[in-house]
Amino acid sequence: MMNRSWMYVVLTCLFELLWVYGFNVANSWWHWVIIVGIIAVDFHFLAKACENLPTGTVYAIFAGAGTVGTALMDVWLFNGSLSAAKMGFMIILIAGVIGLKLADQAAEARQKEQGAAS
Fold first, then answer.
1. The pLDDT of residue 118
2. 26 Cβ partners below 8 Å, 6+ apart?
3. Whole-number pLDDT of residue 117
4. pTM recorded for the entire structure
5. Do 54 and 5 meet the contact criterion of CB atoms below 8 Å apart?
6. Coil/strand/helix, residue 26
7. pLDDT tens figures, 51-62
8. Backbone phi, then psi, for 75, in 5-degree steps?
9. Is 114 exposed, middle or buried (0-12, 13-18, 19+ CB in 10 A)?
């Protein structure tokens, strides 16, 4: 069940990038209808991921992947600039997401140890 939850995390990150991309290219009412549909699917995947994984970790990954992905999409698809400062802050963001995941794993291990000792 845990692997399926991680699949939902990946899907919610991908769909987030799709709707952000859509915000940049939409120029007709029906584009916005599609974007709203993508957002609905995205939040469905986000909710499914949170059913079996810590919500803080899921949201941190969702927000981090969206932030980094959007910044890189801006550079490669929309001719934005990429500075050393942007790169540095993206690295800090990724390190924070990894740190949250490691902290959640440590908390889960402690809970299992306490459960086994009881």
1. 65
2. 32, 35
3. 72
4. 0.79
5. no
6. coil
7. 998 888 898 899
8. -70, -50
9. exposed
Distance CA 118, CA 101 (A): 26
pLDDT tens digits for range 76-116: 999 999 999 999 999 999 998 888 888 877 777 787 788 77
In the numeric block, which tokens belong to residue 77? 């698809």
Cβ-contact 42, 68 below 8 angstroms:
no
CA within 13 Å, CB half, 110:
6
CA distance linking residue 48 with residue 52, whole number of Å: 8
59-88 burial code (b ≥16 CB/10 A, e <16): bbbbebbbbbbbbebbeeeeeeeeeeebee
CB 24 within 8 A of CB 80: no
Spatial separation of the C-alpha atoms in residues 75 and 98, rounded to whole Å: 24
Rg of the chain over Cα atoms, rounded to whole angstroms, equals 17
At 1 the pLDDT is 65
